[in-house]
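Consider the tokenized backbone below.
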């Protein structure tokens, strides 16, 4: 028997309520567990910016889009007019990706860009999901070799969670949609903290 419209509406409202409840709980846990770390990371970024450094970002799969959005927040603005802050998302070159995949060099996609761009005052922020990503596994050791500071946002227990980094933000979720939300939220918070330190807002 088909569900009545009122029953379907109740189910939709229930799913929405549950999603909001889950997200609110995750955000609360994130701020409680990682708020201090985000403040330290913001301070490191400010120090790097003042010495001519940049924020470089990379993301696994759909988190690559989040990395691009966060870079744009730094380049343009979060909530008020101010000078651009130097941020760049790796992975914005589809023709390079196609060439490297054709030649069997896909795992070097991020690291090849980092080697060409990075300086020792730069900071690399990686957003990873629960899947094994060879390109990111190669990227973090190279960043340390190039004397970049490193930060990682990753689910607990993921393949990248054991990597040596300067700032680790291990999240208590592996749900893809929640990771996207949390990655963007943490990127926005980081930008807001940096803006506050640099421009007194």
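A designed sequence for it:
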């Amino acid at each position: 028997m088909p569900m009545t419209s009122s029953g379907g509406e109740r189910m939709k409202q229930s799913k929405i309520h549950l999603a909001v409840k889950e997200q609110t709980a995750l955000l609360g846990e994130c701020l409680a567990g990682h708020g201090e770390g985000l403040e330290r990371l913001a301070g490191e970024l400010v120090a790097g910016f003042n010495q001519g450094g940049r924020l470089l970002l990379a993301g696994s799969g759909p988190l690559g889009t989040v990395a691009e959005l966060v870079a744009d927040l730094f380049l343009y603005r979060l909530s008020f007019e101010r000078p651009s802050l130097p941020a760049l998302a790796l992975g914005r070159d589809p023709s390079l990706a196609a060439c490297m995949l054709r030649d069997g060099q896909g795992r070097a996609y991020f690291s090849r860009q980092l080697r060409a761009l990075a300086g020792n005052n730069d900071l690399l922020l990686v957003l990873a999901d629960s899947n094994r990503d060879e390109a990111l596994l190669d990227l973090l050791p190279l960043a340390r070799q190039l004397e970049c500071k490193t930060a990682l946002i990753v689910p607990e227990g993921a393949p990248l969670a054991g990597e040596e980094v300067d700032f680790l933000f291990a999240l208590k979720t592996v749900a893809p949609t929640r990771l996207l939300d949390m990655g963007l939220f943490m990127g926005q918070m980081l930008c807001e903290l940096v803006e506050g330190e640099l421009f007194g807002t």
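The mean pLDDT is 89.
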